[in-house]
Task: structure prediction
Amino acid sequence: MNQKNMTSSITASFQIDFGEANVKLANVGKRYNREWIFRHVDFTFDSAKKYAITGPNGSGKSTLLQIIAGASMYNEGIIEYTIDQNKIQPEQHYNYISLAAPYLELIEEMTAKEMLHFHASFKPLLQSYSIEEILKIVGLETAVHKQLRYFSSGMKQRLKLAQAFFSSKPLLLLDEPTTNLDADGITLYQSLISNYTKNKLVIISSNVKQEYAFCDAVIDIQAYK
Result:
């Protein structure tokens, strides 16, 4: 399959209906010991839109994203997920989320292809194209059978983006998504956003404008101090 036909095929795949996914935060707060990182976060993330959570380093933006992902607990408030207006139980939230973040580890003994196969066993990938095609899209076609221990930091980030963008989940969470990427990698990220997030709810934690300039709304975490 040539690049033009591949792009056309994959773009069509991302026009599938993931269902109407919404995330509602009501009075959400997080503290460490006696210090509140943020409080009284009231916000609804609407289906098929893109949002950015911004703020200085250490302000709590990544913590809020981790809370939305279910990877960190919050100390007050309520988070409610709905799919097609049906409430999802908290223990099932992870079934609707894909996440890319610098702190997520990869299994370095695996190859790129093995890693995507393993990931797909608990976060299924979209089925209309192969893992080899996904790796080609993110510029890793020559590293399909290469162990991740030999990947550069930029190559690892491309693989993390592949796992997140091509998971068949309605909610895509991205924490500092261009970390370790060079200029070509940043262009790739912007292409993934443009071509492969149709009908997905996207939430990005970032203080780098080029990572979120396209977003429908920006939430400043400093407003909840």
